[in-house]
Amino acid sequence: MSVGLQRLREDAHRVRQGALDKGEDPALVDEALALDARRRQQLGATDALRAERKGLSERIGKQLRKGGDPGSSEVVALRGRSSEIGRRIESAEAISADIQARLDDLLLRIPNPADPEVPVGGEEASVIVRTWGEPAAHAESGWTRRPHWEVADSLGIFDLAGGAKVAGSGFPVYRGAGAALQRALIDLFIGIHTREHGMTEIWPPAVVNAESARGTGQIPDKEDQMYVVTRDDLYLVPTAEVPVTNLHRDEILEGSRLPIRYVAYSPCFRREAGAAGSKTRGILRVHQFDKVEMVCFERPAESGQTLEWLTERAESCLQRLGLAYRVKLMATRDMGFVQAKKYDLEAWAPGVEDWLEVSSVSNFRDYQARRMDIRWRPTPTSKAEMVHTLNGSGLALARTVAAVLEVYQRPDGSLEVPEVLRPRLGDTLRPAL
RNA sequence: GGAGAGGUGGCCGAGUGGUUGAAGGCGACGGUCUUGAAAACCGUAGGCACGCAAGUGCUCGUGAGUUCGAAUCUCACCCUCUCCGCCA
């Protein structure tokens, strides 16, 4: 991703402040500006040389077409001068390429400035903007809610040991009603988004090539978080965002096509290198999980309100399941390098007594689009400009399942199936014998 | 995986070394005509970079190379199509 050179020139102050707010180095902005000035100067010099050579070549062409002798002293002289300029062009180009490479590298290290209404600060500065539903109590009269892995155990719907055997730790296996629950949730969410929210369903590949991984910024920023198929130079997708957003890479979209709103299911693969810790129990942090992702391409003027809309679409999934949740507006240092504004949705899990992040909804403004060169044309004759991209989970399954199990468990070890899922799963899941 | 064909502007499609950034058609946009629309006719028009501008450069799948000069020649890679093999 990168902030645009144009914005850098016109609004350097805010980009600098944006870097500062995100805890990044604001000096990079000035370095980039200086390098950009050199680049432009160098470009002018190179272009002049090329123009000169072009003129000479044209003169040679004219001579020869007139029937001139290729060996005549005039032609030979012209050739000599042209060759000489050619050598100067080569060295000028080498300098340009070097400057360009350094500038590109710098640009990648300047973060997307946060929107003005985003609180400045770290985790402590993030604010809960609303909560929905009543967080279920851990202990009620006569019984205490168990963590989801224990609920799953008594229901016989996870086979974590089986997953560890066939793939490795962190690759869960769902069996019986557990498998059916996965399938039901995926279908429920996609149905909500397509039928009620008018999104177009995409069923993407589970691997992407290096260009796509670069497009959404997995390379080079998060390369060690991805599983790589080195033999074929492919990457297992960490989220459907990667293949779906890249669908329009290097395209100019007609204004009449916007907004484009996709919903896509995909398995998600993450190495989670170095993430072992307290919140990794059960299926809270795994190497493979399932997620329904929403991806939008918007007119810049509308992306602000689309972020709110997308967040509400994700919320509707939680509401449908009857899960209590809260919406957190992430502060500048809590939201990441590339987002302009981001909400996290956290569902209450009474067994582990914690809020679980089940969705993350972000507005990238034009930051991602610039990297992928996705533009739009407001009218058929106007100049193309960058689109705004947004995405949000709606929802990530593993943690949603954990919340469902902990909220809907009964003292007798059975599970009350949430009402929306009853047509697919029946009323109750009973403990395995 | 093997053999063959091919990748040119929004689309189709000419173009095999020298004003070709690229004929022609369709589509698009502006206009004439019309009550309105269609048709017809006239006109405009790719993208990117640098520049106040005039303009200059780059761009014919991608990257290297040959040449004074490459859409046109050479090499590698990618993709598409057809046939064969294999296969859920």
Summarize the topology.
Layout: H1 5-10, H2 12-21, H3 27-65, H4 73-108, E1 127-132, E2 139-140, E3 143-144, H5 148-155, H6 160-166, H7 177-196, E4 200-202, E5 207-209, H8 210-215, E6 228-229, E7 234-236, H9 241-246, E8 252-254, E9 260-269, E10 288-298, H10 303-321, E11 325-329, E12 341-349, E13 354-365, H11 367-372, E14 375-377, E15 385-386, E16 388-396, H12 397-408, E17 415-416, H13 422-425, E18 428-429
Helix pairs in contact: 3-4, 5-12
The protein binds one RNA strand of 88 nucleotides through residues 39-41, 43-44, 46-48, 50-51, 53-54, 56-62, 64-65, 75-76, 78-83, 85-86, 252, 254, 379-381, 384.
**Helical percentage:** 40-55%
Shape: elongated
**Which CATH architecture of the largest domain?**
2-Layer Sandwich
Please report the number of helical segments.
Answer: 13
The number of distinct structural domains comes to 2
Beta-strand share of residues: 15-25%
Number of strands: 18
- The mean pLDDT is 92
Q: What is the CA-CA span between the terminal residues?
A: 53 Å
Biggest sheet descriptor:
8 strands, mixed
Low-confidence regions: none
Which class do the helix and strand fractions yield? alpha+beta
The CATH topology of the largest domain:
BirA Bifunctional Protein, domain 2
- How do the strands of the widest beta sheet line up side by side? 1-11-12-13-16-10-9-4
Highest-level CATH class of the largest domain: Alpha Beta
Rg value: 28 Å
The CATH H-level homologous superfamily of the largest domain: Bira Bifunctional Protein, Domain 2
